[in-house]
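Sanity check

After download, print the first record. It should look like this:
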Amino acid sequence: MPDSSASLSPWIPAEASAFIERHAARYDGMDLATLDAEAHRLIAAHEQLVDHDCINLYAGTNMPNPRGSALLGSTIGSRPNLGHPGAKYNKGMQHAEQLEVMLTTLLKRLFNARFAEHRVGSGSLANLYAYMATCRPGDAIMAFSDAAAGHPTHHAIGAAGLYGLKVHDVPFDTARMDVDADALRDAAKRIRPKLIIVAGSMCLFPYNLAAVRSVADEVGAYVLYDAAHMGGLIAGGCFQQPLAEGADLMTGSTYKSFGGPPSGMILTNSAELAERLDRIAFPGLTANFDLGRTAAMIIAVMDLLEFGPAYARTCIANAQALAVALDAAGVAVFRPTGRDQFTMSQHVALNAIPYGGGNAASARIEPANILFTSIGLPLPEVTDDANGIRIGTQEITRWGFAAMDMDEIAGLIARVLVKNEAPQNVKGDVIALRRLFQKLHYIREA
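Expected C-alpha cells:
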C-alpha cells in the first residue's frame, strides 16, 4: 500500500500536515463500503452545518439555486466537447453545444458586453487568460497590494508570477480606499506597465476607473477589472460598470456574489482581445470543459437577469446595516478616514488587531457557527496575523435576511469578540436564528 503520509510533503503547513496524516491513516484502513458510507456522511454533515446551521458571512461564498446544482450532476458534464459550437470534433453534441451559445448570449446581455468567455474553470484561471491575452512573460504589470486587498493571482506567488510577469503596486489612497490617480500616473510613466489591474478580494467602494483609463492610455496599457467578488452587484446595476467605465477586460468568479457554480468568466468589448481569449481557450488551455457547469451557470445568469437589481440592493443594505450595528455593539468596524460610510458594497471590514488578528478571530468565532475570514487592511499596526476581517452579506441575503435582522447578527458576533463569551454558548442562539431563514430568495423556481 502506498504511503499517504503528508510528511513526504514538507512544504505543507504543520497543522495541515497533521490533519492529513490523521485522516489518511483512517481511510487507508477502511474497506470500500465503509469509505462509501463515510463520504456520504461527510457531505450530509457539511450541508447541515454550512447550509442550515451557520450564519455564513464569508465573503467568497454563496448558496446557488438548487436547480442549477442539480444540473451539475447531469451526464452532459462527462462528455468531451472539443471545438466551437456547431463545429465540434466530438459527434453527438448537437443538443449540448447549444448550451454554450445560450450561456454566452445571456452573459453578454447581463453585462452589456460584446464578447463573453465562459470556458475557464475559475476566476483565478480567468486572470491567467487575461494576462496571456495582454502580456508576455517579463512584462511589467500593476496591481493592488495585499493591504489594498489585491488577490494572490495578481502577485508573484500566483498566476502573474507563474506566468513570469513583474508585478508593481498600484498606488492606493487609503483615506478613500481608492486608486491614488496622481501617484499612479507618475508610477506608470516610470514602470510602463502592459496591464493595470483594478479591484480584488474586497471592494468597499467603487474605484476611479476613469482616472485609471486615462493613465493607461498615456502609457499604452490595458485595464483589467477583477470582479471576482463584485459580479453579482455589477450584474444588478448597483455597483460600478467596469466595461462602460473604461476596463478592457472584466474577469470574475461565478459563485461569490454571482451565486452560481464554481467557475470563471471573462467579458470584453474588444474583438481583438476576444479572439486572443478564444484561441487561449481552444485549442490552447481549456479544450474539454464541464458542460454541466455551463448549464448551471445558465440558471445563475437567469436568476440575476430577473432578480439582480433587488438582490444587489439588499446585499448592500444588509452590509450597511450590519456595519452600523456592529459599530454600535462595540466591534471595531473599519471605516476609511475619507469616507462617511463603512461600505457601499456587500463587504464589511473589521479591524482585527483588538481580536488577535483576522485568522485568530475567525477561528475563535467559528465554534459559534459564525463564519468569516481575514483580509489585509491599510492599517499602521504590524502583526504576524492578518490585520483585518472580511465579511460578506451575499449568502445571508439569499437566505432572506434583511436589514432589520442585522442588529441580531451583530449582537451574536459581539458576544464572542467584544464580551468574550464562550462561542459554544452562543452557538445555540445562532442555530435558532438560522432556523428562521431556510428558504432561498432571489432565485427562479421551476
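If your output differs, re-run the checksum step. Summary of this record's structure: DSSP finds 15 helices and 14 strands in the chain.
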